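Summary for the steering committee. The consortium agreed at its last meeting that each partner would contribute one worked example illustrating the joint modelling workflow. Our contribution is presented below. We chose a case with several input lines so that the handling of multiple components could be demonstrated. No manual editing was applied between input and output; the record is shown as generated.
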Amino acid sequence: MTPSACDKSAFSTMEVCGSLTVSLREFGCEQSLLSRPDGSASFVQGDTSVMAGVYGPAEVKVSKEIYDRATLEVLVQPKVGLPSVRERSQEQCVRETCEASLLLTLHPRSSLTLILQVLHDDGSLLSCCLNAACMALMDAGLPMSCLFCGVTCAISTDGQIITDPTAAQEKESRALMTFAIDSAKHSVLMSSTKGSFSVHELQQCIAVSQKASEKIFQFYRDSVKRRYSKSR
Amino acid sequence: ASDVSVLWLPLPRSLLTCRTAEPLEYHRSFLKENCRPDGRELTEFRTTTLNIGSISTADGSALVKLGNTTIICGIKAELANPTVEAPGKGYIVPNVDLPPLCSSRFRPGPPGEEAQAASQFIADVIESSEVIKTEDLSIDRGKLCWVLYCDLMCLDYDGNILDACVIALLAALKNTRLPEVTINKETSAPEVNLEKRRELQIHKHLVSASFCIFDDSILIADPTAEEETLSTAHLTVVTDEDDRLCSVHKPGGTSLSGERLQECISRATTRQREIQKLIDKVAHSVKKAQ
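What follows is the complete predicted structure of the assembly.
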């Protein structure tokens, strides 16, 4: 299977509610780039880059098997060093998001392994991991009830909401939130926040993330359409 | 060939819902009546009891019981060199331990994913809320600072450990008394005076409220271990006394609508008032006894 060409979407700015701008960094993705995993994808958001590989459905250890569903295991490998406590918490977030959208009951007593390798971290890492995970699961052909995408919002010290922040913007922000939005109902599947914020700011960020997720889902659609129209 | 004839009698469902055989149906039959197997309302929290200062060898300690869930927190303060990135600040290192004692789910060995995710959650909550200004932990800029090791150990796992951990941590921090440290001008060595102690300045009064979602629509507060395993999503909201949110932690699971999230946040703010009163009452009574 020839790997599909890199799909780059132009830098996009949208006006939301007049005062909020939803601007995402240039993002791109490549699917089926690795030969051993059943599905693989690489997702790039600005300078942040994550590669995902999926193995499954495969045989599962008896101690880990669940009688009516597949067992999903997620491993996040940082760029430098061994996985630490921070990676475990990211793994928990990604795993439970994937479990909510995958149809695990179609593969009982099987295992699905999702490995995420961080190639470069320049901010919005968790959302890049979620996007790479979704593209890899699609590439593996695993049955899903909906797609999901990750969006990170940062609230700067002067109250402005920045979507898809860089590492420098994250450091200067007062609060940082990552949401996983599903494609069917555009509701929040996963929420992980840092810093303190008010309820109103939270609702604004959710609205902004839902708006930004539409752009990402359109990108998924275009990317997969291009890939399958080429390899005919 | 054996000749077996089976007579099948359709018995009414209500007589057949066995807690161990069909736990989901059992819980659903209660939720239909808007209550739970232990008699609580859907948004009711279990009885919380708090005991401060029980560990004499620790610099601060607290024991929390949230229903059956029991968490003990011990804080030890040690002297260390501050990090290069933040020379004027000390640091806090929380660690949540879920030993095999508390539940049959945990096996002996290195900490599992749940314990590590809980430790990261507590570390993020401490950092996000600035409950303690890390500048207060600095003794000599660039050379010496306090590092607080907060060990949270679960003694009995009956669901909702995150809430209990946050309460235990806050109560233990309120109870922590750091000894006075002076730097000897001639030898430039630190001198610790264990008799003279000062309290830590707690800036924010954090309380967390956990909920879980059942069947994508029903929201219940303070789930027990059984309810947690049967639920489809979990949500934890951490608020402080100014009604600012320090953390909205929803590690995946089924989606949550905006109105449900708002309900959770309002319930979390009422819970914050209750727990703040409890911790203040207990801390006050401990101070009076000293």
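The longest helix of chain B spans residues 258-289. The CA atoms of residues 57 and 284 of chain B lie 21 Å apart.
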